[in-house]
Write a structure and sequence with these properties.
It is found in: Cell inner membrane. GO terms for molecular function: isomerase activity. It comes from Aquirufa esocilacus. It is a single-pass type II membrane protein. With about 700 residues, the chain is an alpha+beta fold. Helix content is about 45%, strand content about 20%. It is globular and about 95 Å long.
Amino acid sequence: MALITKIREKSGVAAAAIAISLVLFLVGSDIFQGKSSLFGSNSQEVGEIAGESIMIQDFQKKVEEATQNYTAQTGKGPSEQEASMIRDQVWNQLILDIAYKKEFDALGIKVSDEELIDMVQGNNIHPSVRQQFTNPQTGQFDKMFVVQFLKNLKTLPVEQQQAWDRFEKSISQDRIRAKYENLMRMSNYVTQADAAKEYQSQTAKFNSKFLFVPFFSIADSSIKVQDSQLEEYLAKHKDEFKGTNTRSIQYATFPVIPTKQDTVEFYNSIKKLAKDLAVAQNDSAFAMLNSDVRTPYLVSYSEIPEAVKPLLGTFQVGGIYGPFRNGLSYSIYKYGGVKKDTLFTMRASHILIAPANKTDSAKAQARTRAEGILAQIKGGASFETLAQMNGMDGSAQQGGDLGYFKNNGSMAQSFEKALFGFNGAGLMPGVVETEFGFHIVKVTDAKTNTSYKLAAINKTIAPSQATMDKVFTTADAFANANGNLASFEVALKKDKNLIMMRAERLTENASAVNNLSNAREIVRWAFDDNTAVGDGSKKVFEQDSQYIVAYVTGKSEKENVKVEDFRIELTALVRNQLKGEMIAKKLENKKGSLEQIAQAYGAGALVETVQDITLASGMLNTAGPDAIALGRIAGLKNGKRSKVFVGDNGVFIAEKISGAPAPALADYSSYKNQIQMMNTQRSSFYINEAIKENANIVDKRYKFY
């Protein structure tokens, strides 16, 4: 009986195990990876806005719609960077649809059907409608175009009807948002007292003499900052240090460089291509099909690589020339002769001397100076050196070089006429006058309208698959042997040939890591919930012509600000605080004139004088725009001296020599308007930030893209 009972118990356990196994089979391994909603997991949540969850399926659907619209408008699919911008646009639209809409609805702000009609075809046309229906020939907006379009809307394809619906929704949202922002702006009132205070700060002036001991007069190395002091400072100034989600990494890079064997094979392939190009019936088409980088068949002299130009005179029709090297790229050419173009091309350098103003005397002075420089060059002086010394435009840094240009109106008319009227190369005999000033010109490549028929095959040496596999194997072995940061650091000490890079404070949605432009896979790994500080990637990341093994060295969190997140900034602030205390203590109880106190203090103490300083825009010489010092000095009575005080940049003892109060003003309206205008300019930004902060936005897109 006991045995039967035992069997029943065991069979119950077995049945339960089978049931659990069946559930796990149906759910899949996702349950262990946080992807199942069986136990309330929200791993499919791409974010949260104002308490509403945004699921990845819904978000991706909107992204796909936006991508289709982009493709329909541009005729091409988005690049990786453009795809990222599309996702940002969709996300921002969701913020508008959810967070902003809640604010709008709470105030009852909306756009009625009548108002929408008025914006589209009424008396108050929305700027976007006006832009869309402006005649490109006349530049005029015609309301009848809109009316006719709407009459025919139902006959248009469904996609265009949907596009119009989206357009109407966007201008409606734009109007609602404008109403909301205008309401917020109108609630911002500048008082008479505010205006009077602004007037005083801009107008009242004072003269002061002060003793200043800058923080930098004490060496940083002499001040030891303790972690406890950093913790204390952070606790008192939490509002000044906002947390962000970041990761810092180190990574080893294993470059994939073509081997000697790869180079030999590349040369053999170039030779074969040269032979095939020589007998190709359609040489330009053959060259295009076999080039890594395609170039036009008919090129001007300016478009020909510098290494090829000196040999052009030796080329014969039908001949094969090259290979010519440019970095890791090699080019071979089949020469097909020349063709005359309607436009001429030339290259020149210039030195621009611009008059100080448009008066005749200023022009005369500029001409005299330009002619003097021209005389120096004719006497043997270096054109390039004088261009760098005297040129008054951006070309001066390049010795006046303007590069190649054509007589197609791209240059000033008088400049172009003079240069293309000049034959040959060399220094032009006189200065050239344009609306910009006077130019000394040297033609470096004479004008030509000859175009060259060159079928070019451009090939880049690339590592073979065997080479790539070999480097990958090395990187993979390194990743497996050094699975954490500690072992990575040991490996760095052992192998001095290892290439190590750092990337500090990467954000969740970063797409680049230093010069690695498409590094989302690395960033996503670093932010993965299963990746901890000190972990190695173990997986090898492929980036262009290199393999990467990464290690997380640090992290910061938005909701948990730590000293380590702002160690450099905090250390500088606390160090200056300690310096201020040291300097102030040394200055206390010292008597005499400021000069005597400075002498008694010793090295580092300065005595300076400022005149006609205002509170709004004062500069205290060495101390700069020290707000604390300006306020303390402005608040002193004339002829009085302050006690020792610590400013933004150092320690002060100040005397207010004299002050000229702002004259009485009957009307402060101009200052009132000035403040109001500044508030209006800033209001849109502050409103946006306030709504976003109130919405408690959680952005988890980095987990999916």
